[in-house]
Amino acid sequence: MKKQSKTPTPLRSQLTGHRSLFTLTLLALALLLCMPAQAQRKHGKRSRSFDTTAAAEARIKEMWSLIQERYVESPDMDSLATQAIVAMLKALDPHSIYIPAKDVQKANENLQGNFEGVGISFQIVDDTIHVVEVIEGGPSSKVGILPGDKIVSIDGRPAVGDSVNNTFVSNHLRGPKGSQVTITILRSSPEKGNANSSHVTGHGSPVTENFTITRGKVPIRSIDTWFMASDTVGYIKLERFARTSVDEFRAALADLQRQGMKSLMLDLRGNSGGFLDVATSLANEFLPARKLIVYQEGRRQPRHSYSTNATGRFREGRLVVIIDENSASASEIVSGAVQDWDRGTIVGRRSFGKGLVQRMFSLKDGSQVRLTTARYYTPSGRCIQKPYKAGGDAYRNDIYERYKHGELISQDSIHFPDSLKFKTSSGRVVYGGGGIMPDVFVPMDTTKLADYFVTLRNKGLVNEFPLRWSENHRAELKDLSFDQFLQKYDSYRVDDEFAAFATAKGLATTDTTGATDAQRMATTENYLHLVLKALIAKNIFGTKYYYQIMKEVDPCYKKAFEVLL
Predict the structure, then answer these.
(1) What is the pTM of this model?
(2) 70: Cβ contacts below 8 Å, ≥ 6 apart
């Protein structure tokens, strides 16, 4: 990649010589608020702006001393400093954030592509920790932890009851590499039965075992799944842009190409982004040599461009990128480059609209600030950042507002002014100012919003039942391949078992909201049938198989596949 600018001076170097983090923070606020105006004025006006900044610094220092010396009680200055930082960043934009030192490692785990812990996925059902997935090659798999195990104590402390939640599990199972944790698990030998059996003992004789696990690095996958959609069409679902994402993509791509893939569906729905350079590296996989991917520019940052280098592994072959309202940032960089160069077709709904670039700056106490330093622009010159001057609440509620006024259902409700009009390399009109507009619009599937399904989901039954069913049938399914499972699944009366399960939980198994439309009910019931089937497959075989079942009721997937036919 061609990089055309020097790295900006770290924030910690700019703010040396002051008395406290709180003072540093407030002085930075004064500078940040005043400098944009200063940079735009003539030399004579700059002096006046500098005087204003100096006066703001003096006022802040005066207030700091006044609180210390005169406040009625001894103030918690560290807490005040944190609140001041958070408040100032909130006043700038929705994406500049402060991360306390204690949260830095956890905040960066998804982007780094790994964390330190024991390597399991879990679900809490009836105050009991159920192991849903054991990460291959991770610390837990090495000592013999299995999906379906129930964790009943951690380091001798009971791990069941009302106090057990996701935070409890994370705090006790995660820890530095090389440290140890001892867990007690309850493992049963399930016999074929229904999902109404006890969540603790199941069927068969329960066995209690102790395992001492040495914590280590646990990989976080960026790619949820990949598979062949047909003899020549492949599908890759990318969840985030982490440090490992491009390597994972190349491995998945190579596997699909070995199977005969000629056309690709890249699914970026729900992908909220990650590292910008990872996004440009992924876009490089699709575009010819010497093509601009994206450029960024800011008040204190000169234009910085990223271009392709002719090393991409899928520069030819038909391409569809699937996006939705939760595709943001790095996802929009890739989508924008593909669209602006007419390299592929964008399918789905208007993306989130994040065109701001954050840099990570470390403060002396170990905390970090993700500060917006530039805007990025697609090859046609679009900045797709949606407005945020109305405040954080309005910004966060934007997706809901889109739903309310019908945008997620009908493309006709979307309107952009001509001032936001740009053109692709072939002259097609595209728009900036609020996300990437797809070339092919696909309305939201409202089946999952049906009252019947929402009620079951909100009560937790849609997740609880597949977990119980999987545990009770794991022994007889563990030696089957995924294809064999699909053939065998319909021989089970899973839907009937779920109806009995829901009834036992006090919920009706039909729509009680007055709906009489038989076709709509049939659609909802078919969707529920596939959700249960997909979650059971996920529990037995792993996350990647969930999507291979849900594609049957996925309108975006179907439209993307249709485009490639």
Answers:
(1) 0.84
(2) none
